[in-house]
Amino acid sequence: MRDFAHPRLWLAVWIAGLAGTVAVCLLPAPYMAQTPSGTDKVVHAAGYALLAVWAVWLFATRRAQWRAVAGLVALGVAIEILQGSLVPETRSMDARDVVANTLGALAGACVRFTPLAGLLQQVDRLLAR
């Protein structure tokens, strides 16, 4: 992990995001019929992008960051499989969701190549004062 004054806090926020993603994706979704076509793919991509950005902010090495992104891709695949088997009444397995999740995770990981890569450390330093 990167050098933080509050490393447990930032890791807990990321883990809560992961847990929230799993919970939201596996709960029955009666509202899905009302969602405009394609809108959910944008939500999938944005959610996984945010999780990947947070991973880049957390982990110091390129290897750890890419492992986290690979884990997010695997999580997206696993969730889709579970949606098809655990909640088939209101959810369905959709390969397009896997594509959206993957593209979002890869896009989020690109923050590594920008000045925003150290943003969480800057916030952490401000809070530590």
From TrEMBL:
Keyword ATP-binding tagged? no
Lineage summary: Bacteria, Pseudomonadati, Pseudomonadota, Gammaproteobacteria, Lysobacterales
Please verify whether the record's keywords include Cell inner membrane: no
A Pfam family found in this protein is VanZ
Which InterPro entries does the protein's record reference?
Answer: VanZ-like
The alphabetical list of record keywords is: Membrane, Transmembrane, Transmembrane helix
Q: Any stretches that span the bilayer, and where are they?
A: 9-30, 42-61, 68-86, 98-120
PANTHER family named in the record: DOMAIN PROTEIN, PUTATIVE (AFU_ORTHOLOGUE AFUA_3G10980)-RELATED
State what protein this is by name: VanZ family protein
Q: Per its UniProt entry, which superkingdom is the organism in?
A: Bacteria
Query: Which intervals hold domain VanZ-like?
Result: 42-110
